[in-house]
Write a structure and sequence with these properties.
With about 100 residues, this protein is an alpha+beta fold. The chain folds into 2 domains: about 5-45, no CATH class; about 60-95, no CATH class. About 20% of the residues lie in helices and about 30% in strands. It has 3 helices and 6 strands. The strands form 2 sheets. The protein has a 3-stranded antiparallel beta sheet. The chain has a 3-stranded antiparallel beta sheet with strand order 4-5-6. The protein starts with a strand and ends with a strand. Bound molecules: zinc ion. Zinc ion (ZN) binds next to helix 1. Zinc ion binds next to helix 1.
Length: about 100
């Protein structure tokens, strides 16, 4: 059974629908238009199909950390607000943009 994600589409929402919630529904079932908790108008949020995220993950793998280092690049990943941690290559182990 597919799972649908719903989120409040108005300013009048409750804790339940402000962040959105998942509902298991049969394909034939009518989509929800109101939050079951507070009755606010809600909209169905379209989630990216699994196939798309799979492709994105695979294309990211082509630039492996070893390749980055071999080609003289340095890679950082964001670990917090303005903070970066080195994952490959030469350079400082961490970058804190607030100290630059
Ligand atoms: Zn609600």
């Amino acid at each position: 059974m597919p799972t649908y994600h719903y989120q409040a589409s108005t300013e009048n929402h409750c804790d339940h629908c402000v962040e959105g919630f998942d509902v298991m529904q049969k394909l034939a079932e009518a989509k929800l238009t109101q939050c079951p908790e507070c009755g606010a108008d809600i909209k169905k949020v379209i989630c990216a199909p699994a196939l798309t995220s799979q492709l994105t993950r695979d294309s990211k793998k082509t630039l492996s950390e070893q390749n980055i280092e071999k080609n003289g690049f340095t890679q950082y990943r964001k670990v917090g607000n303005g903070k970066y941690e080195k994952t490959a290559g030469k350079g400082p182990a961490t970058i804190d943009r607030e100290n630059l």
